[in-house]
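Z., the sequence and structure:
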Amino acid sequence: MAKEINLATINEFPLNDLFQFEDRDFTPWLQKNIDFLGNVIGIDIADAETEVPIGNYRLDILAYEAGTDRKIAIENQYGTTNHTHLGQLMTYMAGINAEVVVWIAENFNNEHLTAINHLNQISNENIAFFCIKPRLIRVGDSDPALEFLVVAKPDEWEKQVKRETKLSDRQIKYEKFWIKLVNRFKEVYPNIKPGMWSVNRSYLIMCLGGSGLEYILKFSHGSFLINLYIKGNAKMHPHEIFDRIVVKKDFIENDVGAEIEFDKKEGVKATRINLYCDAEADILNLSEIEKDFLIEWSIEWLPKFKNTIQKIIQDFE
């Protein structure tokens, strides 16, 4: 006799049952939980700001890909999509030079999905359009839960073909270097799991951070460095974290055993703290011996730098 299996019923509700107003309730919630959206679309989203003025309009959320200046425009809409919001998205994209556009709506008209899919097909590998359907659900008598369904996204295979045909010699050399570095890190530090490299391949996110921090290995203007990228968290603004670290400058430099650069720019939310390798590092001109030197330098100095910073941030996490 077959075992009786009882399954609860999944019930879907309009967003405004939980978030009464899109602008005053849902958009602020999404800003605070932006990682939820980032996990769905596969992009590490940081520095989310709401109601950003662009001409006569206001973009719901402007954010950045973590560790980069790649801008992300996010527009939320209750109900069914319309031409007005599609036009606004194009205005926002042009106004801030966004490379990622995310349209969140409860329902999408077929013609709008067709338009977004067409934009993905004709765009280069740096540009991405997403359509996201939020579902507010309950399983039986459970508390409400929210899930994001991706209903339109870039064709990754097609983007990959475009990418492979357009990579420069510099980008190819970057990729080969990062692959070698990651393999070496896995040998020495199995628990360290490097993340993603940038669109132009010039840096690699090492995903070692806590308290709104990311550690990045980076080629920049002929130099090679460890970049501590401070993007902040729900409790602390990036500048507050930076200021609480920079007062320990002498301790950091003595503990690490090297000079540290503190980079805080006015008008820019995220801040950076840099440790430079004392070597010329133009990837196009590096020999294999020089590349190995940079890899071994990273293996020595990245954990040392991270451990020193951790001694400071553990006091205010």
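The mean pLDDT is 84. The first helix runs from residue 22 to 32.

Let me know what you think.
H.
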